[in-house]
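Input (structure):
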């Protein structure tokens, strides 16, 4: 007798693949990718501080008046502004010219860049290279952007040979021409005149050192009153004249 009942479809249904291992494998792959990103990344303190400061200033109006998300004082502001200036100068020179060494002597306060003179000046001449004028414009913009209560200064030091291994040259030399040309270019392009200074150092001929300072306005203010008071105090002191020593004549 033939069974005419319909055949159960579950008997021939293909087995469904288990997607749990596949999902777990993809999850582990994404996790390994992010772990790799974290391991090769570097922590930028200046950028983190800038982001926190931006978030604080943006959402300060929606916070209660008594809420104080961060302890921020004037000293912290000076350090953050100084580190931001140092990072800007580092990016400018590291992407534009060949710099031998970049040193942060004091974070947020002082940094030094050392480079060959040939990257800034024409070979054998006392003029600034024409292809570095755009870089000088960006340096001028960085120096002119002074935060409240702070000033950003630049010192240009060129190495030179000594005269007789004892003294720096007093006459016009190639190094003095280059220092003057660079200072005049920066001031002509808008740099604050009181923020640029140049000088010479013994040895290291053909080398240029750029010092970038971040200082408070009060630190560089000339206090004539204090100097005048010091002169008055010095003049008010009685002059002491040593008495002559009398030696009796003794006949032996």
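Output (sequence):
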């Amino acid at each position: 007798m033939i069974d005419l009942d319909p055949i159960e479809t579950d008997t021939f249904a293909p087995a469904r693949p288990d997607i749990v291992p596949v999902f777990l494998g993809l999850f582990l792959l994404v996790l390994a990718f992010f772990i790799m990103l974290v391991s090769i990344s570097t922590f930028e303190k200046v950028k983190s501080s800038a982001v926190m400061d931006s978030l604080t200033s943006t959402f300060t109006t929606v916070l209660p008046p008594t809420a104080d998300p961060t302890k921020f004082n004037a000293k912290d502001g000076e350090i953050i502004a100084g580190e931001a200036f140092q990072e800007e100068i580092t990016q400018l020179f590291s992407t534009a010219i060949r710099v031998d060494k970049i040193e942060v002597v004091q974070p947020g306060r002082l940094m030094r860049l050392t480079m060959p003179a040939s990257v800034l000046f024409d070979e054998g001449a006392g003029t600034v290279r024409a292809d570095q004028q755009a870089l000088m414009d960006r340096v001028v913009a960085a120096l002119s952007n002074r935060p409240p209560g702070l000033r950003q200064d630049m010192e240009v030091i060129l190495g030179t040979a000594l005269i007789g291994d004892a003294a720096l040259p007093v006459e016009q030399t190639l190094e003095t021409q280059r220092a003057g040309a660079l200072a005049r270019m920066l001031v002509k392009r808008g740099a604050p005149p009181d923020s640029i200074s140049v000088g010479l150092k013994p040895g290291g001929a053909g080398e240029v050192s750029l010092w970038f300072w971040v200082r408070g306005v009060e630190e560089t203010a000339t206090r004539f009153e204090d100097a005048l008071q010091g002169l008055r105090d010095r003049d008010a002191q009685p002059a002491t004249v040593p008495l002559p020593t009398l030696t009796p004549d003794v006949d032996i």
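Notes: The longest strand covers residues 196-216. The beta strands are 101-106, 110-116, 150-160, 196-216.
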